[in-house]
Input
Amino acid sequence: MNFRTVVLTISLSFVLFACGEQKKEAPKAPPPEVSVVETTVEDVPLFLEFVGETFGVKDITIRARVEGFLEGMHFQEGSAVKKGDLLYTLESQPFEEKVATRMSSVAEVKANLAKNKGDLDRYVPLAKINAVSKSDLDAAQAAYDASLSSLEAARANLRAAQIELSYTKIYSPIDGIIGKTQAKVGDFVGKEPSPVILNTVSQVDTILVTFFITETQYLEFTRFKAKNDPAEQADDGDDKFELILVDGSVYGHKGGLDFVDREVNTTTGAMLVQATFPNPEKLLRPGLFTKVRVQVRVVKDAIMIPQRSVMEIQGLHNVFVVDSNDTIQTRSIEVGNKVGSSWMITEGLQAGEKVVYEGLQKVKDGVTVRATIVDIEPTGQDKK
Output
């Protein structure tokens, strides 16, 4: 081996040694940062929710009770009306003519009655002195009695004609809000195919909400109510129901149970339930679809964690738990009810354990992490 070869060999050894030293001294990657929630125990109320529909405490349909052309509409659609306010007028000429005819009949019968009364008054003293036969007196009495009956019938016919005439003016039966009219001025109403129902007036200072519950839900709610306060079973006015509006907000007034239908529908297996809610601000209107929520039980010492912390694979649920050495452990759990955006954990976790909340994609079993505890509201949102 010549001198040049030796020099190259030594140089190469130094290069390889330096590379080895650089590789050995390369810094380790820092442990991944994750957010965790610390489990606690709390008493958690559980609720049932149902889809309901709202109705006015009174929804009165306005109908034309006689046939005729609609001549006038005396309200603003969608406005508040008072009991006795004039709403519609129908053509009245045919009914006025009928009333006039019946009045003429009454006058005619009265005239005949007066004549028969006069005849009878003359016959009575004459019959006493045998100036007229008894048969003539009986005929005069019969004619007078028949005239009285005819007058009563004529007056009844007149009253009926006057009632029909009164139907040509339609008044509001209650205080409330009137809707859109189903007929316009000039329409022939009171007979198909024209609308029979002209409008609806709703009293909305109180709102009724109807919904359906299953047999199981009915038993669960009834048992909870009896267990917590048996005296309330007969108190239908107890305010236990909450109303969730379509925008997700909770209505500001609680409602009470109005009635539960007497039977379960054998076809659907559901029962009709109605609750009553005060509506002083007139926020609610008939025809709204809402959710009705009612508490059915309270779970003592429950553990709740955000749903986003739970991994589900083929029906099995797991979470990542950070132990005292900041090491990840995969833990199998059993879940119960969902409350908001949280799971109730029935098995697999104890109070005080740290469950990964954010950064699940960064970790796996056995990895050391840097954990930061965050506070989570029951809805699963970070506290500000």
Summary: The chain is about 25% helix and 40% strand.
